[in-house]
Write a structure and sequence with these properties.
The complex is a heterodimer of chains A (287) and B (326). Chain A is an alpha/beta fold. Helix content of chain A is 37%, strand content 22%. Chain A contains 11 helices and 10 strands. Chain A has helices at 2-9, 55-62, 84-90, 107-114, 123-127, 131-151, 166-179, 196-211, 223-229, 247-251, 254-261; strands at 15-26, 29-40, 44-48, 70-75, 78-79, 92-94, 184-188, 215-219, 232-237, 240-245. In chain A, the strands form 2 sheets. A 6-stranded mixed beta sheet of chain A has the order 6-7-8-3-9-10, sandwiched between helices. A 4-stranded antiparallel beta sheet of chain A has the order 2-1-4-5, with helices on one face. In chain A, strand 9 and strand 10 form a beta hairpin. Chain B has a single domain (2-325), classed as ABC transporter involved in vitamin B12 uptake, BtuC, CATH 1.10.3470. With 326 residues, chain B is mainly alpha-helical. In chain B, helix 1 runs parallel beside helix 5 (168-190). Chain B contains 11 helices and 6 strands. Chain B has helices spanning 2-33, 40-57, 66-97, 106-126, 168-190, 192-202, 204-209, 214-240, 247-262, 267-287, 298-312, and strands at 129-130, 134-135, 146-147, 158-161, 164-167, 242-243. Helices cover 68% and strands 5% of the residues of chain B. Classes of the chains: A alpha/beta (287), B mainly alpha (326). The A-B interface holds A 63, 65, 83-85, 88-89, 93-94, 96, 100-105, 109, 112-119, 121-123, 126-127, 133, 136-137, 140, 176-177, 180 and B 187, 190-196, 198-199, 202-203, 205-214, 220, 223, 321.
Chain lengths: 287, 326
């Protein structure tokens, strides 16, 4: 927790993701309208907004699944390549709002699929079982086990992913994304459907991921979770960024509250996102 | 009666092994791109012709010893067949299917039928002929059946086991299926490309988002299927003693039936489906009495079996990994 405070104190970090004026138009519907967002190295950035605000569409623009109608996305100073697999190669990995594991593969196989773009062995090596193939297979298996340990799935490697409990499936998705060796991890509602204890575990996991040197961009509806976790939060409403800033600023912004609750904010209707004593020493004093 | 049963068991299994080797190609491609590659029978035919051409290029050896034939000539012919069929399959994918990847499903299907006719006619018209130049002296014409080279130690050889007579080509076919199945299992489960294939068959979009080069995976699927089809082509040549440009049609149809029987999209299903279909044909022609049991009826029984399986177990004997998207 203190680490996240430190991160806020040191703002001079390299820009990792730089999305400028991204517009995504589907026929007559402008799902993402002129969104600009930066993510710096070692930063956790939250993306909130009511349902249909365009958060996932924006994610899809970042990962090459959609080609933005206009606007630019730069990653590590390079224009983002338009194909998903090249975006992965550049260092961007994601999880999904609805879990999209390879259900008939074991947990460890799922993670090893994530390593596809980082290994050099090819079908020819495999057919003749050249040393490179065996070496890389052994290294991949080893790394996959490490990642399963890292997300807390020790011992579940040989379970078919469809047989894992729900919370474990979410963690396996994160392990698979980490296997692509990303610089930026995009998490689409990582705590959807989780109980409070699982949510705390997820939070702790995301902090560990950040501490291992990755930047994280996270979409979430659980406000307490997001204001606790993030260094910066952007609120997206009807495809546009309404407010962006530190959690304490965003959570008290009347426009954000209005977008969620749907009426003018007064003292009495201001929701208490952050319950006192829930996370001592966190959040408010930064404002 | 018992001897007859075992005789037909062997005949059926070896015929089934031939179907299984071809069926894998249908099922692997279907599992990944949901395309029934109707040109796959022709890939099998081209594998057989590739092996034949290799033999021609080696100087039509007929007097090699059994050892040299089995250890040098046959492997070279198989490799030659694989090169021809894999090249054809990859080119087909590139030029006939990939441009239609996002088209309605009917389009690549029609394209596949077109490719099938194209390849048949291409072999019929141009085998042994260089376009605009003319015939190559000494090369046979493929407009009718071409005698397949006989391999000393296999062609025409038999083993007597009790009252059962086993043809050496049948043993070759079964052995080839066994080796191919082991190889395939290893490839799918223990290599990066294999894992990428399974992942892509389950969810192509997610696979893409995990960094998998889906185009390359699709090419690999076509290549693997074509390589096994080439082995089947050689086995067919050894078994029947001749090859012709039409041989891919019925063999392809039967192998497709085998793939559906086992559960299309499922590799183990293709092997099981092939063996079951071969056994069914062999047993039906022997144990069904009267005129319905004559060998002319074997195709009827094969397809009756298909219809029964489809009515009572539409997902095939072993079910399919991709039924939800079929």
């Amino acid at each position: 927790m203190t680490a996240s405070v430190d991160a806020r104190v040191a703002p001079s970090r390299e820009v990792l993701l730089d999305a400028r004026n991204v517009i995504m138009q589907f026929g007559g519907l402008r799902a993402v309208n002129d969104v600009s967002l930066q993510v710096h190295t070692g930063e956790i950035v939250g993306l909130i907004g009511p349902n249909g605000a365009g958060k996932t569409t924006f994610f899809n623009c970042l990962t090459g699944l959609y080609q933005p109608t206009s606007g630019s996305v730069e990653f590590s100073g390079q224009p983002l390549p338009p194909k998903p697999r090249l975006a992965v190669r550049a260092g961007m990995a994601r999880t999904f709002q609805n879990i999209r594991l390879f259900h008939n593969m074991t947990a460890i196989e799922n993670v090893m699929v994530g390593m596809y773009s980082r290994t050099k062995t090819n079908a020819i090596d495999a057919i003749f079982r050249l040393p490179r193939h065996r070496r890389e297979e052994a290294a991949s298996t080893e790394r996959a086990k490490e990642l399963l340990d890292f997300v807390g799935l020790t011992g579940s490697g040989d379970t078919l992913s469809r047989n894992l409990p729900y919370g474990d499936q979410r963690r396996l998705e994160i392990a698979r994304a980490l296997a692509t060796d990303p610089k930026l991890l995009l998490l689409d509602e990582p705590t959807a459907g989780m109980n409070p204890q699982e949510t705390r575990q997820a939070e702790e996991l995301i902090f560990r991921i950040r501490d291992s040197g990755l930047a994280v961009l996270v979409i979430e509806h659980d406000m307490r979770f997001i204001f606790n976790l993030c260094d910066r939060v952007a609120c997206l409403v009807r495809g546009a960024v309404l407010v962006e800033g530190p959690p304490a600023v965003v959570q008290n912004d009347p426009r954000v509250i209005e977008a969620y609750i749907g009426m003018p904010a007064t003292e009495s209707t201001t929701p208490n996102w952050q319950q006192p004593g829930d996370n001592p020493g966190e959040g408010v004093e930064d404002a | 009666m018992v001897e007859l049963f075992f005789q037909q068991l062997i005949n059926g299994l070896s015929l089934g092994a031939l179907y299984a080797l071809i069926a894998v190609g249908y099922t692997v491609v279907y599992g990944i791109v949901q395309l029934i590659n109707f040109a796959h029978g022709e890939i099998f035919m081209i594998g057989a012709f590739g092996a034949f051409v290799t033999w021609m290029l080696l100087g039509r050896p007929t007097d090699w010893s059994v050892a040299t034939s089995l250890l040098v000539l046959l492997p070279l012919m198989i490799i030659g067949g694989m090169v021809a069929s894999v090249a054809t399959a990859v080119a087909t994918e590139r030029f006939a299917y990939r441009p239609l990847r996002n088209a309605p499903r009917l389009a690549p299907l029609i394209s596949a039928i077109g490719v099938s006719v194209f390849l048949q006619e291409f072999v019929r018209l141009f085998f042994g002929t260089i376009p605009f130049v003319g015939r190559i002296p000494g090369w046979p014409d493929a407009k009718s059946a071409v005698p397949f080279p006989s391999i000393p130690g296999i062609s025409g050889q038999t083993i007597q086991l009790g009252g059962v007579l086993i043809q050496m080509p049948a043993i070759f076919t079964l052995g080839a299926l066994a080796v191919s199945t082991v190889f395939l299992w290893y490839f799918v489960n223990r290599t990066k490309t294999g894992r990428a294939m399974v992942a892509t068959s389950q969810d192509p979009d997610t696979a893409r988002l995990m960094g998998i080069n889906v185009d390359r995976v699709i090419v690999a699927a076509f290549a693997v299927g074509a390589a096994l089809a080439a082995v089947a082509g050689v086995a067919h040549g050894l078994r029947y003693g001749n090859i012709d440009f039409r041989m891919g049609f019925l063999a392809g149809l039967k192998a497709f039936t085998a793939a559906v029987l086992g559960g299309i999209g499922n590799i183990n299903g293709a092997v099981v489906g092939g063996l079951v279909l071969g056994l069914a044909e062999a047993m039906a022609t022997t144990f069904i009495p009267g005129q319905f049991g004559s060998s002319a009826w074997k195709d009827v029984w094969a397809f009756v079996l298909l219809i029964l399986v489809l009515v009572f177990r539409p997902q095939g004997l072993l079910g399919a990994k991709v039924v939800d998207r079929a």
